Amino acid sequence: MTPEAVIDTLKTLVDADKVRTDAESLNTWGKDWTKHFEPAPLAIVFPKNTEQVQALVRFANEQKLALVPSGGRTGLSAAAVAANGEIVVSFDYMNRILDFTEFDRCVVCQPGVVTAQLQQFAEEQGLYYPVDFASAGSSQIGGNIGTNAGGIKVIRYGMTRNWVAGLKVVTGTGELLELNKDLIKNATGYDLRQLFIGAEGTLGFVVEATMRLERAPKNLTAMVLGTPDFDSIMPVLHAFQGKLDLTAFEFFSDKAMSKIMARGDVPAPFETDCPFYALLEFEALNEDIANQALEIFEHCVEQGWVLDGVMSQSDQQLQNLWKLREFISETISHWTPYKNDISVTVSKVPAFLRDIDTIVGEYYPDFEIVWFGHIGDGNLHLNILKPETMAKEEFFAKCATVNKWVFEIVQKYNGSISAEHGVGMTKRDYLTYSRSEAEIAVMKSIKAVFDPNNIMNPGKIFSI
Q: Which of 47, 70, 121, 174 is deepest in the core (most CB within 10 A)?
């Protein structure tokens, strides 16, 4: 079938005005936040319901056409990039909240529901959706499920998979599966729901998700603490975690802080310059808890682990302190950063970071390195900034060399090459650093069952 005939058929499967082939749309919906691959999709389609998704998948099967799912396009692994003439399936118009059960604290969403939309809905019910990150205003629930998104609250609330009660998915054959049916306890064989969480659309497309909600936290309070070195951050975490139920524990380097301060729109937390900073959050349910946090802070100062610090006294100050952490990705995007999203068990973090910092500093001393991440769950974000005078292609080539060394260290510490961003295409060739050949073979076998013609986001996670 010619490309023209394919496009004509697509217009019969979804609303005719929901097929786009103009250059601007192909570029916009054919990529995510990564800049490693040039988008080159055949067309963008916007289904409005499950039946249209099924029709698209069945047609793609008949014609052996590749499909790429598109959500908020905030991904950082090129999992939503269509670089080889694929048809992009955007869920922008499947964006409704369908049902809510107060007693079960469950809300039924279409995949195009934006994360912040779900958070706002939960708040209106007096509840809380705790999976949160900087792109919450544009990321979509379907994409969050596809990458098992984490974010800033994992230390308390876990990853996206902890909040998925049930799924409806269209497999690579066009079959509709209803998985788990929103049950808390269900011991009837394989939990196929968990296979689709983190699968990056390679097994099928999520068309409906039931998400669990939580009690809304009360009087959230944040502290930003400056430390003399990275090694001091871990005893600070241990001190606070031993006595308080933390909802977050983040860290960032002085280079990250300097980039934020250069924006001019975020106030400095305190005057002391420090090599590293920790941001922690907890519920100050009463004055005793707030006083206990101050006592722990004083203990950390006495031990030499903390040089200075501040505790939020209002919602506005809480928001300002969080901006120091949440604005980092957006701020450094100007330098076309090469991002690594890596993780190890929490106890191994200090030695792990030292090893990587040494390698990068030794071989590329002219590259500026910005560290930040979710230190409370062992997740580090290594950002190498592109020098202004270096071409993007040359920079990415040099970073590919760095990758090999970084991932060898990840493997040494039994860590993950992707903690929360997924594999996509940017990490595909490095999967063996975190997964054995036997595991990868089983994963390929699973894909063959759900997607026998390899039409669902082919070339992502691994090549077949």
A: 70
